[in-house]
Amino acid sequence: MTSPARDALATRLRASGSVYAEEEADLLLEAGDGDPIRLRGLVQRRLAGEPLEYVLGWAAFDGHRLRVAPGVFVPRARTGVVVAEAARRLQRYDRVVDLCCGVGAIGVALLERVGALDLVAADLDPEAVDTAAENIGDRGIVVLGDLFDPLPERLRGTVDVIAVNAPYVPTEAIATMPSEAREHEHRIALDGGADGLGLHRRIAAGSGAWLRPGGSVVIEVSAAQSTASAALFEAQGFSTVIVTDEDLDGTCVVATSG
């Protein structure tokens, strides 16, 4: 496509509210692969408000392109704080659980940063599990079920790190989220219950049975909720630190077993 065509597309995207119109135009042109009919369809979907990642079929995360499917939670850059803190606590061949894995973004990023791992990813959303299995391939296993329920028994008491991006948006706050999230992503990937920490409570209560002594949970949370989340883990006997990455606008609680 010519530069004027790219500029015209960026103008249309900007008019629809896109903050990164030029970058989106480049990505859509790449995805169109020179086929004007395909490009028109992609552009129409984007202008109708469909998230760019669903239109492209992939999301960028920690330097990688990960397959995404409509409805499945799109990984956010801020989750990189979980990846960084988990990676600091891991060596090759350690045992890792990517809990509430979505498309498997944390697991894939840890594999790339650390190397071969004994990785199990789990999610309650069947479409997320299918997508994560595609992204992780033969470098780990992906299981379907509620939190710890589907984990292999061999992991009990031996896991080095449980890395988590569980939903933490309070139920009533979902209505205030950007339309791309609240209208397109499955609610199960967003809703953290009345105060947003419903799943954090369950994870704090259940993690100890799966971690080795000295193992850690690294769990994403908002900055405003971080103290309350840490307190949930402390009540279960964990020592905690709160880590914030201002560049990523990400916050996590690191809870370490005794």
Tell me briefly what this model is:
The chain has 258 residues and is α/β, with parallel strands linked by helices. The chain is 37% helix and 21% strand. The protein has ten helices and nine strands.
Structural description of this entry:
There is one protein chain. By secondary structure, the chain is of the alpha/beta class. It has 10 helices and 9 strands. The strands form 2 sheets. It has a 7-stranded mixed sheet with strand order 5-4-3-6-7-9-8, with helices on both faces.
Shape descriptor reads: globular
SSE-based structural type: alpha/beta
Give the low-confidence spans.
none
Largest pleated sheet: 7 strands, mixed
Helical segment count: 10
Helix content: 25-40%
The radius of gyration is: 19 Å
* Distance N to C terminus: 59 Å
Number-wise, the strands total 9
Mean pLDDT: 94
Strand order of the largest sheet: 5-4-3-6-7-9-8
- The H-and-E topology, N to C, reads as HHHHEEHEHEHEEHHEHEE
**Quaternary structure classification:** single chain
- Beta-strand percent range: 15-25%
Provide the fold topology.
Blueprint: H1 3-15, H2 21-32, H3 36-47, H4 52-56, E1 58-61, E2 64-67, H5 80-88, E3 95-99, H6 105-114, E4 118-123, H7 126-136, E5 141-144, E6 159-164, H8 179-182, H9 198-207, E7 211-221, H10 226-234, E8 239-245, E9 250-256
Parallel strand pairs: 3-4, 3-6, 4-5, 6-7
Antiparallel strand pairs: 1-2, 7-9, 8-9
Helix pairs in contact: 1-2, 2-3, 5-6
List keywords for this structure.
258 residues, alpha/beta, globular
